[in-house]
Amino acid sequence: MTARTVSRGRGWTSRQARYAILAAAVLGLAIEFFGDRGLVQVIEARRELASLERDVARLRDQNRALQRDVQRLTDDPSAIEELARRDLGLIRPGEVVFILRDRPAR
Q1: CA distances from 69 to 52, 60, 72, 78 (A)
Q2: Domain membership flag for residue 20
Q3: pTM for this structure?
């Protein structure tokens, strides 16, 4: 029997141990990248966070504009009149409205 001969039923060879360590490392990396809290999930969560932050900023801007409109309509009677004329087609007593229609080209 030479020094290289190893009993097959008694334990791991160094090659088997290396393969087992390599397999465990590959499995660990796969879990780290693709697991529930893996790298892929973290990247997706960061993208979603950035998108939501943009949405929040846009909605805050809209909210400020609406607050300005409310303030203007509360404090300025001419703003109410302008809105009524534009959106409801209202006129003042004594005003005459002329409606001009385009004729089709011949």
Answers
A1: 26, 14, 5, 13
A2: yes
A3: 0.50
